[in-house]
Write a structure and sequence with these properties.
Helix content: 25-40%
Mean pLDDT: 95
CATH superfamily: Gcn5-related N-acetyltransferase (GNAT)
Radius of gyration: 15 Å
Number of strands: 5
Structural class: alpha+beta
Strand order of the largest sheet: 1-2-3-4-5
CATH topology: Aminopeptidase
Largest sheet: 5 strands, mixed
CATH architecture: 3-Layer(aba) Sandwich
Shape: globular
CATH class: Alpha Beta
Number of helices: 4
Length: 146
C-alpha cells in the first residue's frame, strides 16, 4: 500500500463527495446539494486561499480527506489554522492515513506561517481520540453553539 497525500483536484469530485458524505453521516448530519457544490468549488478556488483540502490516495483511489481553514485570531499576529473535517475510510484506518493527513495540515500551516492548528471532535469519538492524543494536546475548552 502506497499512501500519497495531495491537494484536492477537480476530478476528485465523486470520491471527495463519497468521503465527505460518510464523514457527515458519522456525525449524524448531511448537506444540501448546494452546500456540496459550493464547498467543493471553494476548496478549489485560488481566490479563496484560506479554505483548503487535502486527500489521501492509495493506488489511485481516494481513502481520506481533510479540510482546513486559515483565519485571523485576536490573540496572535499570525493567522491560525482550523482543521475542520478529517475522515479516513474505515477499511484503511490504523494504517497511518489519518496521521499523515494531520501532519500534512501541520506542514501546510508551517509553510503559511500559521503554526497554531486546532480542531474539535466529539467526546465519544474514542478511536480518533487515540490518534489525536498522540499528536496534539487536548484543550480544556468547552464549545457552545447558537
Amino acid at each position: 500500500m502506497t499512501l500519497t497525500i495531495r491537494p484536492l483536484r477537480p476530478g476528485d469530485a465523486p470520491e471527495w463527495r463519497r468521503l465527505w458524505t460518510a464523514y457527515l453521516a458519522f456525525y449524524e448530519t448531511g448537506a444540501s446539494e448546494e452546500v456540496y457544490r459550493t464547498t467543493f468549488a471553494r476548496l478549489l478556488d485560488p481566490e479563496r486561499p484560506q479554505q483548503n483540502a487535502l486527500v489521501a490516495e492509495v493506488d489511485g483511489r481516494l481513502v481520506g480527506l481533510v479540510h482546513y481553514i486559515f483565519h485571523a485570531h485576536n490573540w496572535r499576529i499570525e493567522d491560525v489554522c482550523y482543521l475542520q473535517d478529517l475522515f479516513v475510510d474505515p477499511e484503511v484506518r490504523g494504517t497511518g492515513a489519518g496521521r499523515a493527513l494531520i501532519e500534512a495540515v501541520y506542514a501546510e500551516a508551517d509553510r503559511n506561517g500559521t503554526p497554531a492548528v486546532y480542531w474539535l471532535t466529539q467526546d465519544f469519538n474514542a478511536t480518533a481520540r487515540q490518534l489525536y492524543d498522540r499528536i496534539a494536546k487536548v484543550s480544556p475548552f468547552i464549545r457552545y453553539n447558537r
